[in-house]
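Structure, all two chains, one model.
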Amino acid sequence: MKKTAIIMNERDNVAIAVEEIGRGAQALPGLIALERIPQGHKIALEDIPQGAAILRYGVELGYALRPIKRGGWINEDSLRLPEMPDLHDLRWGLRLDAPLPPAPRDSFEGYPNPYGGPAGTRNILAIHTTVQCVVGVLNIAVERIRRELLPQYLHVQGVVPISHDYGCGVAISAPGADIPIRTLKNLIRHPNFGGEIMLVGLGCEKLTLDMLLKPDEINAENVLMLQEIEGFDAMLEAIYAMAERKLKKLNERRRETLPLSKLLVGLQCGGSDAFSGVTANPAAGYAADMLVGAGATVLFSEASEVRDGAHLIAERCVDEATCRKLAYELQWFDDYLERGGADRSANPSPGNKEGGLSNIVEKVMGAIAKSGTAPIVEVLAPAERPSKQGMIYANTAASDFVCGTSQLASGIGVQVFMTGRGTPYGLAAAPVIKVSSRTALKQQWGDLIDFDAGPAATGGMTIAQLGESLFHQIVDVASGRVRPAAERYGIHNDLCLFNPAPIT
Amino acid sequence: MKKTAIIMNERDNVAIAVEEIGRGAQALPGLIALERIPQGHKIALEDIPQGAAILRYGVELGYALRPIKRGGWINEDSLRLPEMPDLHDLRWGLRLDAPLPPAPRDSFEGYPNPYGGPAGTRNILAIHTTVQCVVGVLNIAVERIRRELLPQYLHVQGVVPISHDYGCGVAISAPGADIPIRTLKNLIRHPNFGGEIMLVGLGCEKLTLDMLLKPDEINAENVLMLQEIEGFDAMLEAIYAMAERKLKKLNERRRETLPLSKLLVGLQCGGSDAFSGVTANPAAGYAADMLVGAGATVLFSEASEVRDGAHLIAERCVDEATCRKLAYELQWFDDYLERGGADRSANPSPGNKEGGLSNIVEKVMGAIAKSGTAPIVEVLAPAERPSKQGMIYANTAASDFVCGTSQLASGIGVQVFMTGRGTPYGLAAAPVIKVSSRTALKQQWGDLIDFDAGPAATGGMTIAQLGESLFHQIVDVASGRVRPAAERYGIHNDLCLFNPAPIT
């Protein structure tokens, strides 16, 4: 039977409308809607007095600003935010024994990583840049390389310029500048790029080669500086010739059967709605538990979308050091926002609210569902690379593009992207699987959504069934057997570096 | 006769090496170099005791950190920075009567501006975006539009996506967020885009349509929201169809002979060296004086590259309000840098120093030479549009791409870009004339440099001769009779919004 409203936890005093519920219609047996409840929004299961807690996921989303009648609509204007969890008082190691669902597969087909870390999932020539100055010339060269050279190298799947707005005109030694520099440095070592370094610089930029490369990597095989070249035509030729040399080498790479312990997956959500936390994120969380159980490493991120659940994440940290780093990273982000005159009320977006997410607490509870139940073995600063295997919190901003770029720098081979409102997001350097939280979105964007988690809301499939199916899709995409929509169509967003330091 | 070293001002106690001067070689009659003086670097004209001022442009660049012998080399390690001019104590209106050189022409061929401001210099279909989310889809559509549609509309010169990393995942109401929003809003009204508005949004982003458009502009003729469209193919078709309607209208635009009062020119420098302030910037300043004398409006920018000359700019302000706004804008930038833990020592870049610019004071003195001598009639906040005509200080960061984007938002029809070290910089939305400070750069990058100001150093041409020649080139480029190198080759850098507010 099709469900009309969902109760997430037995403690809850609200339910979520699966479809719009008309005024006077029955939401649940014996519960009549007193007003129109939009899809994904909350309906009160009981009379809620002014000041009383509104509970979803068994968690206090906030406190009623006015009395709410049983059957009434609860939206962002109905409740007051609770206090944020205190980062000085986090407790770790309380929930480390959740049983993980057994994985039906334990291997995938990946490209061995010359640096020894997680495997590649694609074989790509990346052309890195020190500075935006070179991007105009590089783009012209890349167009020609893609047209003329790439078709000759059948084992290479793409040529990707790693362009950005960093590198000069920035306070390169100010606090926070380590983040964009580390991002670029680690992007160079992304497993999809096969250890072939190709870097185009200008010559007078602040971001010097030694900040990105090791001394023995700085040579004419790997680096072109435009100020040393005799004019535009010669620049194009030099870039073309270096790309050809690198393509030849990359063309030798082959997939091998590798254990899932060599797979690194990133999780993200964007354009969330109230179903994200009911369908897509729990399904991703189940798949993540399967991956972790099979030895893979999974990152989840987005500081402002975990902050209000810091205590829940801390409880899953495997040791005190991990818990302390969690507190440090989240405190850093709190301070960053405060210094800029912002706070967590800057999130959610208007679209989130329209989709039924009343406030950041509700968004966070849905967002952290994607991290499943596995112990958290490590916490990373933005764009750091993992040193452990298992479930990892990789701190980033929640901006889809900043988070995507940061997770790429951490080395992810696949990103799983949950969306409720819908975004055509894609990355050029790694495949992105887009998971819809509602079947209506899958029906509307049939050619853009790779996986529909909507049936978990309507009762057609369980989270476990969806999670296992998503697990298979992740492994198939990693293995190159399935190409998600954004990859097939070439939908590539720009890389966006997170630079908390000033522009000069 | 070829000059070996240049003295900028009779008060100076240093000269600038036109070419490298070998140890023991004669730099000027009777002056022997005690050590190797690299090209563009400073040689002492007299013994300078420890603590004494080092004078160039008749201005104190700093104070000797150790005794310097006559004939010695002065570099960034030789001197200590002086105090910055006090912004609370600026005096205005002291230098308003500099005679401006008469302009040899008073009109150009431009596209009348439907909004009534400065004229267009090109006829371009711009496709604006609310948020990075849509960029992947838009890029695919633009490629098809450029290939299939643009060739049918002979009077339109380009299709330019106005893509950016702003729009969501940002603290949209934090202090400073007005800057990126104003930038995008004013870019929509750039005179080169002919008043034809085409905006692609997603649907759930924080940057809502009302922040960019007037109520009567928000309609299906001008705006596409991807979340309202049925899938990827339909998105491409909708963008294509709207672009076709806009191209038809733009194709009706024709150039008309317009007075130079309809011309708005932006000045910028990037990759500067010690010659920038000897050749390229003074030549640009002379051309700017001619333009202003003929009624045109000229912007100069780059807070950290004028800050140490604030007192000199203030003296040219026409009234107290302008002087106060100058102080306000520069103070804002000081505070912005300080908040981020940076200061003016973040500038100059290593390349600047290698080119002979010892510190920010020396860089600034060279940089403000580009503003010529005309009275300063207005000071703009970043990305504001001028309300007056004449010489204007438009506050921006010095980053080439942030400044370029900001000046575009202010409405410039042509940018004149002075470079010493060399950068292949270009903008897609307006032509950029690249001026080299050294003939060696023009010789090396013959196909990228549009105008060589080097002869002012070697004595081949005067600043007045070069300035007048540059004036003609600016007017010819504005009129579409000359296409600078970056425009001919399609060398287009990314737009970079200045967002001082946090990412969330």
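Chain A has a mean pLDDT of 95.
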